[in-house]
Amino acid sequence: MAFEGLASKLQNIFKKLGNKGKLTEKEVKEALREVRLALLEADVNYTVVKKFVNMVTERAVGSEVLESLTPAQQVIKIVNEELTKLMGGSAAKLDYGSRKPSVFLLCGLQGAGKTTMAGKLAAYLKKHQSKDALLVGCDVYRPAAIEQLRVVGERAGVKVFDRGISDPVETSRLAVEFAEKNFLDVVIIDTAGRLHIDEAMMDEIAAISRAVSPSEILLVVDAMTGQDAVNVAKSFHEKLGLTGVILTKLDGDTRGGAALSVREVTGKPIKFSGTGEKLTDLEVFHPDRMASRILGMGDMLSLIEKAEQAFDEKKALELTNKLRRDEFTLDDFLEQFQQVKSMGSLDELVGMIPGLNAGQLKGAQVDPKAIGRVEAIIRSMTPAERAKPDLLNASRKRRVAKGSGTTVQEVNRLLNQFDQTRQMMKKLTGGRMKKKGPRRGLFGF
What is this structure's pTM? Predict the structure, then answer.
């Protein structure tokens, strides 16, 4: 989980403060010194840390906190507000500009994940904003870069424009003309990865920018870059005039220093974060929600949004009706399993629940093999058995176990889980129906 190390340290610091009751100015300053160290260890830029701690200290040692009945909570509130401000305050929207098609130019260092991000962004725009995007291959230096973009475009279900290793500036200009003629909404230009000290490469991307006048110039930054992300952001911003930042690999960095540094240094918002390898693993960056996660206050809004994306409203209504008629089958049970799995990893979901720390559940993971065994067992049953599990006598269970490569004990365990889930969902759904309509999916999502 992103910020896992920082989140764990900050939560421990504030837990100690909470145990003290009334706080003195000395105790608050000692706690903030620990906050400073935690931020530096999380690879947050030194200048950013210094400014942040000074802002928090200025507010936290005043009478508003020291004379409060709940001083520890007041300190946490201040840190939460300042963290949110540090990361941008509120979620930033994409700027489509006044002309059509809108042009988004992606830039960044080699290995930051621009090509994959171009596909993720196109898929996001198609799904959430009904925008038809065109991916443009302007990376003529990295072997197979354009072929990778074609594969990504095919998976995202969007068109790809390229001219092989021809001049990237001319390619980008012709791509915009192509998009205009084909009534496409957005042009996403995937540029070559470069080092910020490489003047020739920086001049090339500046020429592309002048040729197509993008409404968005988005810096793609690997969250694991750490301190160097600041220098990268400065260089690109000075050369191109960035409009925003996209963080990649945020799921793989437990420190997260880049997210807390880049916004402050460039003055430009973090617009998206990549949270996994799938094309759907792209999220709008919400500073307030991220600050809440870091401080162990949860992020229920993101959790609800994930649930809404995973669970189909029509299917949820059908499921509710099945439960009311006592027609919930093992096929339905398997479908619910798969929908919950699609919401994301366990530690990511736990980080969104207030009061729970993913670090405390290290090793508590949903085993993909276990879900595979559940599917194998259910698929080894006949349609009649899946519809009416009561048909499964001893000999049928042995056949199912043999067919799925499992044991009779595992088959019995699954059937018990199914029965318990059916009873619980029936109770939950029944109560909900009387009040506000059908519940969504498994366990009331």
Answer: 0.65
